[in-house]
Design goal:
The chain is an all-alpha fold. Helix content is 51%, strand content 0%. It contains 6 helices and no strands. The longest helix has 26 residues. The chain is elongated, with a radius of gyration of 40 Å. The termini are far apart.
Length: 226
């Protein structure tokens, strides 16, 4: 007969059968795998968008700003007036400086319309486009008003088409002046804050821990006169 186990002796647990998984592995199998969370991009900022997603957002935001603030309507009206004036003057003999000014302004207005419509200016950040557009409107207004004055003085008797072309040039100059007023929306709340270029005050050096402050040196005795 086998000897009986002594009282109080602990029995060792039986080893698990071959091929059985430990309990921790079973728990891991039961837990569902966590799905990767998608990053929620902000609506009013670019966020971390890249590639085509960023260009779509830039295109939408640029056209929204361009049309809602009224710049698109004003520029298209100015462009239409200048093209109509060019067509009216094409059948007349006029001074070449008038054709030059009209052609120059048509090309500049077309450039800015394409620039804002395709969000090209968003990828050229080193140029201040609102200021560039503001100066363009000021110079366009000055050139077009000067063209009207020159056209009136250069011819005493005006043909009907010539008179209509001069009126359209003046209307385009008025639209450019209106666009200058609309450009103020870009500069609202963008004034430079005070003390932006002032360096922050230096931090006082704290005494290092573990080092006692050095004792003050006793004053040197005054040397007696010889």
């Amino acid at each position: 007969m086998a000897p009986k186990a002594a009282k109080g002796a602990k029995t060792e647990p039986a080893p698990p059968p071959a091929g059985a998984k430990p309990e921790e592995d079973k728990k891991d199998d039961k837990e569902p795998l966590e799905k990767p969370r998608k990053l929620v991009q902000p609506k009013h900022e670019v966020g971390t968008r890249k590639g085509c997603r960023r260009y779509r957002w830039e295109l939408k935001d640029s056209n929204k700003e361009f049309w809602l603030l009224g710049h698109a309507e004003i520029k298209i009206l100015s462009l239409g007036c200048l093209i109509a004036a060019m067509i009216l003057l094409s059948s007349l003999s006029v001074h070449p400086i008038l054709r030059l000014i009209i052609t120059m302004e048509i090309s500049i207005f077309s450039f800015f319309i394409l620039l804002y419509s395709f969000a090209i200016h968003r990828y050229i950040p080193f140029i201040l486009w609102p200021i560039s557009d503001l100066f363009n409107d000021l110079f366009a207004c000055a050139f077009l008003v000067g063209a009207v004055v020159f056209a009136v003085r250069s011819q005493r008797s005006m043909h009907l088409h010539y008179l209509l072309a001069v009126i359209l040039i003046g209307v385009a100059g008025v639209f450019a002046l209106i666009d200058v007023c609309l450009q103020r929306n870009h500069f609202r709340g963008k004034r430079a804050k005070k003390h932006t270029l002032v360096a922050p005050p230096g931090k006082e050096k704290e005494p290092q821990q573990g080092k006692e402050p050095e004792p003050a040196k006793p004053p040197e005795p005054a040397k007696g006169k010889k």
